[in-house]
Amino acid sequence: MFTNLILNTDSYKASHFLQYPAGTEVVSSYIESRGGQFPQTLFFGLQAFIKEYLLKPVTTADIDEAEALFAAHGVPFFRQGWEQIVQQHGGFLPVEIQALPEGMIVPTGNALVQIRNTDPQAFWLTSYLETALLRAVWYPTTVATLSWQVKQSIRQALEATCDNPAAELPFKLHDFGARGVSSHESAALGGMAHLVNFMGGDTVVALLAARQYYGADMAGFSIPAAEHSTITAWGREGETDAYANMLQQFGQAGKLLAVVSDSYDIYHAVSEIWGKQLRAQVESSGATVVIRPDSGVPEEIVPEVLERLYAEFGGRVNSKGYKVLSDCVRVIQGDGVDVDSIGVILQRIQQAGFSTENVAFGMGGGLLQKVNRDTLRFAMKASAMQINGAWRDVYKQPVTDSGKHSKRGRLAVIRDAGVIKTIREDALSWESNLLRPVFRNGELLVNDGFNVVRERSNAV
Known about the structure:
By secondary structure, the chain is α/β, with parallel strands linked by helices. The protein folds into two domains: 5-141 and 372-458, nicotinate phosphoribosyltransferase; 165-368, Alpha-Beta Barrel (TIM Barrel), CATH 3.20.20.70. The chain has helices at 46-54, 60-73, 79-89, 125-128, 130-161, 165-168, 184-195, 204-214, 228-232, 239-250, 266-277, 279-285, 298-313, 341-351, 365-368, 450-458, and strands at 24-33, 40-42, 95-99, 105-107, 111-117, 173-175, 200-201, 256-260, 288-292, 315-317, 323-325, 329-333, 359-363, 378-387, 390-393, 411-416, 419-424, 436-440, 443-444. A seven-stranded antiparallel sheet has the order 15-14-1-5-3-18-19. Residues 4-97 form the Nicotinamide phosphoribosyltransferase N-terminal domain. It comes from Thiothrix caldifontis.
């Protein structure tokens, strides 16, 4: 239904082939985050788009379908231009895409992607692709950036309160977002973007995407976990039996299991059922039971649950002076968690005298859905055109909003004394251009593995 690349655009794009100056030969455009919620971006996701959409040729059947649809829709259609792509280029798009290495942490305001047509007769194609290309970049990059920002908050808390923060960090934020996003593809791209930063997630399609587009054999991991229906199915009087069943089914030495424990009374469940009635079974199982509160005010509930678990199961004080629960119990907070609230929760945990290693977090809609193109103010703009053999700068400079001023000329991105900067390509001297060709005329030029992307994101 949605495999026709010609129709992966906005309606008004279909008429733009008639709107450029006579003699236009090349249109060069770029994608950037102009600022927004965070000062940096973690660039990610372009390779997935290229593999899914640009390595398959456009066909005459695609042209026929698009022509009929646009005619009925009321906009022009450049059949001749698309036929030329099929006849002269085998259906593969005559464009070159340059991009920064995926996984790179980049200050906002820098070009992440640059695209131009390689066939002068296809000058109209660069901007025609804006809708699909910009969406392919802004969404996974924004989710990856949000996840990375949370990672920095958790890292700081771990470094302040934990003896071995590096070992704890990879599993501290778990993706709960599959059911909260707008589509299956969004779940795949967003969940995969999160896994650049962390190793835990329940979004199964993200694992498939990381395998298909980045060659990851297994990008993330999860554990057996209860939901409210599997607890409340036993009835309120059978709550203890429901928890005991979880232990019986999954409580093996060295394993983890998560049990939602607030279907009725989280404090009774922690102090009486887990802490007294089932304490011996928990301790003798050799497993770690991860208690999950799922209601209330997180920054109040989590410290209270930690206090009650410490009172019943004990623990130790680490070298930094913070309490660590017995290895048989931990806590995961997945309700009311977003990029803002997680900092508050971490602060309250530390103020209560507990190490951050006691707690993991799950994030759903706040991770994969509570973002939009304006979160990081993403835009794709034309910056240069070749007309009758001469290059000219193309830019917008609205007097009403300096934040929407666009860049001029063909662009390059350099690292100058450790600082990433976007400059004009014709201003390059000895510096290396970090914008590297990744696609040209139907050919994928760079094929990064998922581990390579992860390594770049950690090189900060």
